[in-house]
């Protein structure tokens, strides 16, 4: 099965599950000996789990920037980093997706990507 690292990390570490690969572009610092799908299949497959905060579409940019700054500060706190890493999460510090504009672009990219996949396989709403 494909499950999120955050939900499987403790089961993998306890020996109840065996990780075959991670779906991210790079190996996880939580499971550094587990290869990526792309490494073992040469497909270029990549699927990341992400979490973020969203605001109404007409929220002023200065409020978005303030929220982003506060959240980034909290996420980068060493105690928070330790807790997040223990759950299988890695931060995006320094990554464009950590900024509001980059996060918005990432969401639209996922919408396009999975919309095209849904169309390709004929997925329909019943």
Write the layout of secondary structure elements.
Layout: H1 5-14, H2 37-41, H3 61-76, H4 78-86, H5 100-120
Question: What are its keywords?
Answer:
126 residues; mainly alpha; 48% helix; globular
What does this structure look like?
- The protein has 126 residues and is mostly helical.
- The chain has helices at 5-14, 37-41, 61-76, 78-86, 100-120.
- The longest helix is centred in the C-terminal third of the chain and has 21 residues, at 100-120.
- It is globular and about 45 Å long.
- The protein starts with a helix and ends in a 6-residue tail after the last helix.
- The mean pLDDT is 86.
Q: What is the residue-mean pLDDT, rounded to a whole number?
A: 86
Report the sheet with the most strands, covering strand number, pairing sense and barrel closure: none
Which consecutive residue ranges, at least 5 long each, have pLDDT under 50? none
- Residues in helix, %: 40-55%
Total beta strands: 0
Give the percentage of residues in beta strands.
under 5%
Gap between N and C termini, in Å? Answer: 25 Å
Query: What's the SSE pattern?
Result: HHHHH
Rg is 17 Å
Query: Helix count?
Result: 5
Q: What spatial form do the alpha-carbon principal axes imply?
A: globular
Query: Which structural category do the helix and sheet elements fall into?
Result: mainly alpha
